[in-house]
Structures are given as structure tokens and as C-alpha cells.
Amino acid sequence: MEQKKFTYIAMDIEGDVTTIVFKRPKYRNALNSKMVKEITDAVRLASDSLFLVFKGEGHIFSAGADIDYMRRIARMSYADNITDAINLANLFKAISATPSITISLVQGASLGGANGIVAACDFAIAATNTLFSFSEVKLGLVPATISPYVVAKIGRAKALELFISARQLDAKEAHSIGLLTHLAKPAELEAALGKLLSSLKQNSPSAMRSVKSMVNELFPVQIADKESTSVIIADARASYDGQEGLSAFLEKRAPSWYSSDSKGKGW
Predict the structure, then answer these.
(1) Any idea what the Cα angle at residue 62 is, between residues 6 and 27, rounded to 5°?
(2) How many angstroms separate the Cα of 254 from the Cα of each of 13, 140, 143, 262?
């Protein structure tokens, strides 16, 4: 496998298992545009590995978009927003389409776009104390590029409810709806990964790859066209609500649509 130096991630190779580690623990492994491209490149470089594992260094898998990244998004032109969104969509597509058997190992929290990685993987193991959230609408945005993979994983009705409510869900619920395939106690997360890999290694490598290819061909992730979700997210970022939501978040204030009457009265 070609070796490449990265800034925000690391690739660890051990036999037929390649691990991509998000290495921004100080920033809760939040994603920025360069990190998105690095993960995408790493997924493509690792395509010869039978197994591909995603991990976050530290206490959190990933907090979604990085704050500085969000500042840049707020200042981007519409054309640059389209390009940025396409790059994000390409990451999830690369994970979903790689012939490697993919596994997310999730701890602490998985927020926003990080859930696209979880949903695009074939397996996802989470610590029982992990929290999940699709919080984009709180910022006036839309979980657009992750939506095809989340809907394919958990179904239309549940995805719609979680996207619109933006509520948190715990690992037990995430497992019950199909976002996760396995749960483990926090101290036993690595052991759970080892147990899963040990079990999968009893199977024929070529047959497992063929099964993945077959399922992807018979039940492709439904995307209207290659840029449709990218246009949706770019439109949302350029809208009044998107600009107001991002500004409010960065300025640490409530957005204009927030009703103080509803505080503490929600679900």
C-alpha cells in the first residue's frame, strides 16, 4: 500500500486491517475541509485491505464540523460551497463503495457529519455511553450529504424524525434503529472490535467482498444525481436561516427564530 503523510489523520496497517485514526483530540476530532480530503484519500489508498476501521483519538469519535471550518463556510461563495459539499459527499461515497469491509469504532459522541461516516460503514460498534445527534437544523442547515447513507441505514421515517427534531439519542437507541450494529461497555470497546474482526476472519475474504459488491449493486444508495445533496447543502448555507444560524453559533447567541417560551418544554 502506498504510504502518505497526513496532517489530521493517521493510517495504521496491521496485516489485513487498516485503521484510519482521527487525530484532532484537542478539537474533539472535528472535521475540516483538509481532514475530509485526507480521510477520502486514505479510504482509497486502503482499498486493498480486507478491513478498514475508523477511530477517533481521545474521548470523542468526532464532533462534526470544526468551528474554524464553519467560519470559512459562512464566508464562502456559492460556487465554493458547492465544491466543498461535493468533497464531503465524495467522502461518504468512498466509504460506502470501497471493497474493504468497513467498521466504525465510536466513543463519546458522534455529531452531524460524523454520522455520515458511521452510516456509510458496514459495521459500527459504539460504547454504551456514546451520544448521537443530527443537529444541523438548529443552525439553519440540512444534513444533506449524509442523508442518503443515514436513510439507507435506518429508514425514511426514523431519519426524518431525527433530522427534523435534531434531538440527541443514546447508543442504545442508535443500536435499536440500525445505525449501530454492536454495543460495548466503554472499557471493552477495543475488545469488541477484536472479537468482531476475529469472527469475520473466519469467512472467505473474496466471498465477503463479493457480498458487499452484490448488495451495493442490488440496493444502491439512492442519490438523485451526484450533485443533488451538494446543491441542497449549498443552498441552505447561503439562505438567510443558514447565515443566521452559523452567525448565532459562532457568536454564541440564540438564532433569531429561537423561542424562549419553548425553553425546557421540548422533548
Answers:
(1) 70
(2) 45, 12, 20, 13
pTM summary value: 0.93
- Nearest alpha-carbon partner for 53 in 11, 6, 89, 90: 11
Strand locations in the chain (E): 9-14, 17-22, 51-56, 101-106, 109-111, 123-127, 131-133, 168-170, 182-184
Domains in the chain, ordered, with CATH? 9-186+208-218 (3.90.226.10)
Residue 100's alpha-carbon distances to 18, 69, 96, 103, 210, in angstroms, are 9, 29, 9, 9, 11
The answer to whether 70 and 249 are in contact (CB under 8 A) is: yes
Give every CB contact of residue 155 below 8 A, 6+ residues apart in sequence: 177, 178
Written as one letter, the residue type at 209 is: R
- Tell me the per-residue pLDDT of 41-94, one tens digit each, with 9 for 90 and over: 999 999 999 999 999 999 999 999 998 988 898 888 999 999 999 999 999 999
